[in-house]
């Protein structure tokens, strides 16, 4: 199906007629300032009531104004164009709009310059996200046939998709994509050249995740090093002629946006955190805590929309009603084109759709560490601002024509349904302005600069020879260089080896040399002599690229490079030293730990100190973990939980479990800290129920910016591993949680509707009973040495513990009498290798005479937990052995839980 967009753009057709029955005054007649006046009332509109469940003492609600207001009404693209506030010399032109496209979220270009548009047509079609996972989304492809700058001809390349996560052009008529709640990436191909994919092949597995659509994998991106990176996954994948391979990486901390700069540094865009992530060092070397990477006030946005319609509420609102702290971000691009001022080249851009701005980021690198700042902080501005509340920049890209394209989802709601639930602040503000009615729109804009015309040379790479593609590696537009490199590798054409080697060695274009190097690497033609020549080059960038590319040679047997890595740690440039150390670390070359220690002692550059210190800490932590005496089953849970936490939970809860700072001054947290939390270390039911069903509201009187959403779309193993990891990391010590326990809680709460409120959850979770002096603790084997010995039963509650006089006997018992009856439901204790208790049963009683057996279990080394469903009240609890043993019976840190 083909369609034409030009008539719409030329006539500036508006869809205001949809609202003509309720709006007497044309919305386009109202100035941008007048439209956003909180006292604007052209007609009598009802006041939006504050939900009964709202905590009016919370900073989120304090000072909220819900005066009757007219609904906000969308503009045509031509009218929206007038609302942009740009830096001098810049302009924005619509090149593709609704109704041709709807709900555009991302764009990509293929080798012939055709633009693929990811259309999320099921996203928040109402305030409750009804039908969000219906197969109504699509990927369309658009062309500017007459080369006038407008994409007028389109086809639906792939239809009936369930909220697709990305689109990756992958050669002639081929793309990669993945749907929500799926684990597989598929390759889709148009084999008959009719513009529609008709062949579907499995490309890769293990990249997906389930749950909230905002928290799933996105932006799979082919980078300069020929690996593909995506958000949330602590791994990278690579296409080879023999199949797709994977390698572990650090946690990207990205949510919606992956891009790279001219030197292959991959940048990830955090969503809820609102800031770029992992831009200091390649993610394959792990994560680093770089405290100075954000300069002062980087998180401060300068928005012209003053509706206070964002999830954190009034606590993050400036006096004028605009946003005072970046709270959501989407889409990103390091501009690498050649038709905008050179000052923009290699600078990072990203959208803040909650603030309705596009930010330009200035990077400053000193002693191997990069710090970033808003380019226009001094004048309290942004690269792009808009007074239109429906401007929602969700992606941006360097285009084949050398300019920058901005994807504008143009809609009322930009937060997913988990954040617009009944009773939420955000829902109240959305309803006040009736913003939930504005859907099914979308615009793509070209950013231009006066006196610099777009490049009208249209790409035709699919029809070009390999030799012609090699020439594009010298193109001033990074998009051309990237695409030519990718297509040369996909073709597996080694006939251009001599041309690539010549370019890598002798081109006067540094970027061309780097692309030629990586193209050789991708074709399997890279040789040691070339990387050694890069090691000796006078250019810092060339030396670094040589080190990174040489890792492939080392992996495939070129162990003689170890000497070169050692020599490169003596380089005069800190960035080169850092790269040599990171290469040695990830390759685990002989003596790499000593190499790190020596560099730490001899090189005082800030970046070298930071990298060596944290890599040495990583090594120490790995050794400590290897020595930890977890059972094999517990270790599996721990390791899986760590992977999930690093790639997902850490975004809000912090890498070290201390919470992620937010707020204008960084004095608040997105989510609560885990380290030392009595809630986390307490009864496991709390964390399992929280993971399964989510949690909203203040926690112990403290508000957090984020909302813990339900994770019950994940299986029991997933939930158990996350719970087990955070209960035993960050200095915490708690019992491990089994998948069977999760299944039990899942079944018991399957009728739970919506998130838990903290107070309600705490009220139903079993509480640990604090041992009191009036508890009577006895055992069949009593002390032979008096009070204070390890044979004193009352020591069972402490670290010292209690054990029997001799080996375990059948019928040996341990008993606690409480001062009053309680609804006992569980007990937990620890045992060591010599303290295994064997098979035992648990009994309860009201009078100490009539006993009810509630559970049986076998003692294990480490943590032991046993629970039962019989919650009838009891005053006595007894543990009794059911078998003989060749070792004493010993317990410590015993806890009793009651509902």
UniProtKB/TrEMBL annotation:
Domain of life per record: Bacteria
Pfam families, per the entry: Cytochrom_C, DUF7133, F5_F8_type_C
The species this protein was found in: Cyclobacterium qasimii
InterPro entries: 6-blade_b-propeller_TolB-like, ARM-like, ARM-type_fold, Cyt_c-like_dom, Cyt_c-like_dom_sf, DUF7133, FA58C, Galactose-bd-like_sf
Keywords noted in UniProt: Heme, Iron, Metal-binding
Name of the protein in its database record: Cytochrome c domain-containing protein
Annotated Cytochrome c domain residues: 636-730
Any one GO MF annotation of this record: electron transfer activity
Chain ranges of the F5/8 type C domain: 802-899
